Amino acid sequence: MGCDIHMYVEYKRRAQRHVDVEECWDSHGGRINPGRHYPLFAELAGVRMGERDTGATPRGLPDDLGFYSRGDSKLFIVGDSDGDPVEGAVFKSTAARWVAEGSSEYIDEGSSVTHPDWHSHSWCTAQELEDAIKRADGEWGVDPGYTALADTLRSFERQGYDARVVFWFDN
User: Fold this and answer.
1) Whole domain around residue 96: which residue ranges?
2) Partners of 124 in beta bridges
3) Would you state the torsion angle of the CA atoms of residues 123, 73, 61, 112, taken in this order, to the nearest 10 degrees?
4) Per residue in 124-158, pLDDT tens?
């Protein structure tokens, strides 16, 4: 069974002096999957390590997620029906079964659940991503999509924004 990564680029304007408005994180597009790279997954979050112990541990999701990562990180609970739920939703009875089995948790005051196949939620900065790429590069080479992702984060930084990539894995 393979493991894929779900990644979301987020940015917000750096805090400015004399401004009392809290900036929120904006999403730069939707989900990105640059491809499977297990040594990099191990460096980012201790996932798919095999014999490799990187010491990396997932940070969890930030409380202030951007629009796309917030919406995609959970499944909304809808009433029971004979048909299939819409994408991004799960029937109430299915959600209750997942929670009872321990493969999911209720969130958002019970209006949503965590996806039972998604795990190791985390985030990193451009520097942290670049460092992880360097450490993982020697084993398989790294898909240029990952370096382009780091370049995108750096581009936001050059323009005066904080930038991060939020991610999690599926099985």
Assistant:
1) 74-114
2) 165
3) 180
4) 999 999 999 998 877 567 889 999 999 999 999 99
Contact 105, 99 (CB under 8 A): yes
- Taken in order 134, 136, 137, 143, the sign of the CA dihedral is negative
pTM: 0.87
Q: Which runs of consecutive H residues, i.e. helices, occur in 27-143?
A: 38-45, 67-72, 92-101, 126-140
Is the domain of 126 the same as that of 110? no
Q: Tens digits of per-residue pLDDT, 12-53?
A: 988 665 555 567 899 999 999 999 888 899 999 988 766 567
- Same structural domain, 90 and 127: no
Q: CA 161 to CA 28: how far, in whole Å?
A: 12
